[in-house]
Write a structure and sequence with these properties.
The protein is mainly α. The chain is built from 21 helices and 4 strands. Helix 5 packs antiparallel against helix 14.
């Protein structure tokens, strides 16, 4: 890398591309996996299932608008991490990073497997896709994502725009077809909606699990806060993008689920590995390949956005000294390449033994623990620093509502129907102490770490970003460290 080349994250994403990023990351695997999970935990009750989808839209909007204050108050990449460190201290911030290190790759692995299944399903009509070829294809897809991300933010934004057009075309076709079938009024299409609430009503723990499945389909609305350092005018654009994107996503999801249920019975949805493909097989069998292409583009763009945004969190945590220094290096395209590689290595390992519905439960459970902590940090900072500049300030009922939903989704499954995977998650969370105390709190170091860092820098042609010296002042604004401090860092 040339000595004088500028290597820092660039503010190049405006309102249009910000909204596209939200569409890309939210409308991905969820709408193709979650209908099965929501129906399962709704006891195959169509009315309850659709009600949960509508409720998930309201909860997601409330949580997203509360969460947006983090990125507008501290407008830099990895704003969640910076906010937690400032409000609740370095240990809670490390806890967030510790969880992200594994939960983000788990979500990526789940969507990679789903994408591989959709691509291969047309080659195995009428039967299940073999696990080994599916997992090999999923691994190949993940590393193609790494190559795309290494090209920088402009290439990623261009790809997201194209893929969003493809995915919205597919979902609009499914939605409109479902409406047409219902308007035509065939008995078999209307039957499931006439007595929608007649089936068994699920219990509280099942409803909580159904919410986790449905909210997984809406997950990803935090992407703009993660990449706030690359947004133009984040104080204005983050709330505007969220309101626009989530409103359209909620409407699309409800129409798509109605369309699924207009064509397929709940039992048929439960027995399908690829609901959209099964739906198309029933409606226009010769067009199965088109659905596979559309769904594949949708999931691939969502995966791409997740890798892009998660790498920025690791980048900032490395700048703050809570992760190895090598993760805060950039390549010539201003991409934190090493952070991207680490995410994909972890996702590849998780892909091999994974189960989709269980992975969603793990990821959803952990995400809502994190969100509850962020709302606590938001309230604490409101009290501790009331004069901190806040271009956007969410109303407190939204914050308390998000905290209540977080407690409900986390505690209800544990109290009502505890499962072994809840124990595994809690053990994993506390295991972060084994790494925090020696390597962060006591700052243990080894000369071998420096040698490895230098070797990887030369191997991957990366260097520390010029924004490494950027800090957050006591007033909450971003500024550069004085030259003498920067010199000490070097």
């Amino acid at each position: 890398m040339k000595k004088r080349e500028s290597t820092q994250l660039q503010r190049v994403i405006g309102y249009f591309h910000g909204t596209i990023f939200l569409f890309s990351v939210i409308i991905g695997a969820g709408i193709f996996i979650a209908p099965k999970g929501v129906l399962k935990y709704s006891s195959l009750n169509v009315g309850v299932s659709l009600s949960i989808w509508a409720a998930c839209a309201i909860v997601s909007m409330m949580a997203a608008l509360s969460h947006a204050e983090l990125g507008t108050t501290l407008p830099r990449s990895g704003a969640q991490y910076c906010f937690l460190k400032r409000s609740l201290g370095p240990f809670i911030a490390f806890f967030y990073i510790w969880v992200t290190l594994f939960s983000a790759p788990a979500g990526i692995a789940a969507r990679g497997l789903l994408l591989a299944g959709y691509i291969m399903q047309p080659f195995y009509p009428g039967c299940f896709v073999p696990e080994m070829p599916k997992k090999c294809l999923a691994l190949a897809i993940l590393w193609c994502l790494g190559i795309l991300n290494a090209r920088g933010v402009k290439e990623v934004a261009w790809f997201q725009t194209v893929s969003t057009v493809v995915k919205m075309t597919v979902l609009c076709f499914i939605s409109i077809t479902g409406i047409v079938l219902l308007v035509r009024g065939r008995k078999e299409n209307l039957a499931r909606f006439e007595n929608a609430f007649d089936a068994e009503v699920p219990g509280a723990s099942q409803i909580a699990e159904a919410f986790l499945q449905g909210l997984y389909a809406y997950s990803g609305w935090g992407v703009l806060v993660r990449i706030a350092g690359e947004l133009k005018n984040p104080g204005e654009n983050i709330p505007k993008c969220l309101i626009t994107a989530l409103t359209l996503v909620a409407l699309t999801y409800l129409l798509v689920n109605i369309s699924y249920l207009a064509v397929l019975t709940p039992k048929e949805i439960m027995s399908s590995d690829a609901v959209a493909v099964t739906w198309m097989d029933r409606v226009i069998p010769s067009m199965q390949w088109a659905i596979s292409i559309g769904v594949s583009a949708s999931i691939f763009s969502s995966l791409n956005c997740t890798v892009f945004s998660t790498s920025r969190i690791l980048y900032v945590a490395s700048q703050e000294g809570q992760l190895p220094l090598i993760l805060s290096t950039l390549n010539i395209h201003s991409c934190p390449l090493v952070a991207v590689i680490q995410i994909l290595i972890f996702a590849s390992i998780i892909t091999i033994p994974s189960d989709l519905i269980l992975l969603i439960s793990y990821v959803g459970f952990i995400d809502w623990i994190q969100l509850g902590l962020m709302m606590m940090g938001l309230l604490k900072l409101r009290i501790q620093e009331p004069n901190l500049p806040r271009p956007y300030k969410v109303r407190l009922p939204f914050v308390f509502g998000t905290m209540a939903m977080s407690l409900f989704l986390v505690l209800t499954p544990i109290i009502k129907s505890p499962k072994i995977h809840h124990v595994y998650v809690l053990l994993f969370l506390f295991s972060g102490l084994l790494f925090y105390l020696p390597f962060v709190h006591f700052n243990l170091n080894s000369p071998y770490f420096n040698k490895i860092t230098c070797f990887l820098q030369l191997l991957l042609n990366v260097s520390p970003g010029n924004d490494t010296d950027e800090c957050i002042s006591a007033e909450g604004t971003l500024q550069k460290n004085p030259p003498e401090i920067a010199a000490k860092k070097e």
